[in-house]
Amino acid sequence: MNDRTTSHDRVLAQRQAEGWMFLIEAARDLRTTGAIAPSGKSLARLLTDPVRAQSPHPLAVLEAGAGTGPVTRALIPQLSRGSRLDIVEANPRFAARLRGLVTAHPHLTATSAQVNVHQTYVEQLDTDQRYDVIVSGLPLTNFTPAQVERIMARYMELLHPGGTLTYFAYLGTRKARALTASRAEARRHAAVDEIMATYQRTYATGRWTVWANLPPAYVWHLRRPLVCADQSEPQAVEARR
Q: Which sign, positive or negative, has the C-alpha torsion 173, 178, 181, 187?
């Protein structure tokens, strides 16, 4: 067995362990875990594209709802010297795993990028930092409309003007809930969709469909506009469909 085979086996074992951990946490609380499997490579790449596009400039990046870290692993190699990554994860078991991932990652030693894991909710993150890119893994369609409003307002507050928020939503969840859930649950999901549609109409710069994910998902990029000199309100950015 050569080093390449050993490394490949380690990666497969890691993914299998993460998959089981995700299933266990989903069984504990599907509302906050949001899925039955970690994000796939294609989804992680699209979510992290705004960081990749601005490399090698030093950036301030926030990842919210990192889970077991599949998107974190895609983010860290894109961090240039002088960059900062704040990872927010409320689940204590996921947060502990993320700290281990950060401690052991060789890229951070080479670049001296600053990475911190915060076990908290993004609405409660105590920071004066503003971010160039926010990557959200939070299951927004699982929350109440009031929670989604608070989360999205916090994201926009934390972004630099001109900064980008990326997030994903699974395909078909509203139709599935309409067929299988209670009327109250279906109304909750529809209300959240309306909130997000308003943000998409106002701030979206792109939407992509990721079929190679379990389950398939949309990825959205939203940009906080720059404030024009003669206006007190940001200019809206029209979405590309």
A: positive
